[in-house]
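Q: Can I see a sequence and its folded structure?
A: Here is a first one.
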Amino acid sequence: MLDPRVKRFLGALAAGNPPNALQATVEQRRAALTQLMQFAGPETPVGRIEDRTIPGPAAPGPTGPGPTSPLPVRIYTPLEQAADALLPGLIYFHGGGLVAGTVATHDSIARALASAGACRVVSVEYRLAPEHRFPAALEDALAAVNFIGAHAADFGIDGAKLGICGDSAGGTLAAATAQALAHADAPLRLALQVLICPILDYSRMTDSRRELAQGFLVDQATLDHDLLHYVPAGTDTANPRISPLRASDLKGLPRTIIHTAEFDPLRDEGRHYFERLAHSGVAVSYTCHAGMIHLFYGLGAVIPYAKSAFAQIGGEIRAALA
């Protein structure tokens, strides 16, 4: 059953007569997400916030890789932790369909992860489509994780306790990045991946996508709109770097925590990923939050249950990175 508070919130949104997502411009999509994230509620207190830049992926040039473009990151230190102490770390990629969202719009989620997980969170400002289509965001994610992993102590992070996290389309990036690292001959090995209501398969329709295609915050039209702007025409969306659920080999991935919501059209792909990871021998846990919708965890001002969800997620992060 849909949570009563969630039902009232969805009713209020519908009463506003939102435009058809497929007809919206990218600017309208971004503005709508920014407005939606104002329902995040009071800021979770943290000990310190620091903005930095790190090297981005090398740009291709006529004679080889060219100079990198810097990637902004925001570092969150939980309360009662010294700025120079080595803590477990979590690299976070925000949601927004890979066309919307920023470190600032998802500040509340990063704060909650740092506080509940007792870890230092590094939130990455990756490039968005359509200005930068696939694979730009994934290249940024890989560059960020590799750099932070190689310089973990400079971020106050214990490199042996470094995880990756993403919500919604940020979960796409987190999952694809974890797969790339697991299959690469590289020294960096993540200790954890956390996927919150992730988008994991852009290529197929699941039962939950059909059943919840409209009226549950994220419509199929919104997903179609974002995909249209994210991938170049003619791109095979079954590519695992776009749809991580379609990867043929999931062995070697880090311990994984997956959270979905009962009334989220993305629910089934999160559950299917859990099942495939478990079958592949990956240590994995799965929670489906009853009565909840997509992004419920980021809407604490209208969905108080978000606080309870973060308490659970944070406890799982603490245990995994202990």
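Q: Show me another, different protein.
A: A second, unrelated one:
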Amino acid sequence: MRKEQDGTFTLRPEYNPDLLPVAPKPNRFRGDVYILSNEHSFSTTSEFLAACKTYRVGTIVGTEAGGAYGGGNGSSFISLSLPNSKILVGSPLVYYQNAISDVQPPDRGALPDYEVPIKAKDLLTDYDRQLDFVKELIQKNN
């Protein structure tokens, strides 16, 4: 760890090769990438969506991600047992920031490039409106 001037600590890349930049492979996929998102896209998924949005990797279709674009608080928790009821309560200890620049929008989840909400009828009929929208985009782009 390296102590920063603001009092935080940073992992030193020379001790963790996973932190070093990785060059794309020559045989990588070069086609269009479509990513489906909704309010259940939280935790690591919201971090993934934020990175995709920041670095313009793919087209996000669906609804706003459930997790915060800029980071979260799921890394460390403290558990307390309430004295009378003995109910166990968990509370986050740390807020972390995603490795992204220019958090847009602040205090919200990653917004899709195409807003495609799911309707109640879709759930009853097992219709995937978002997937069909992506299929239409693919057809239109070909």
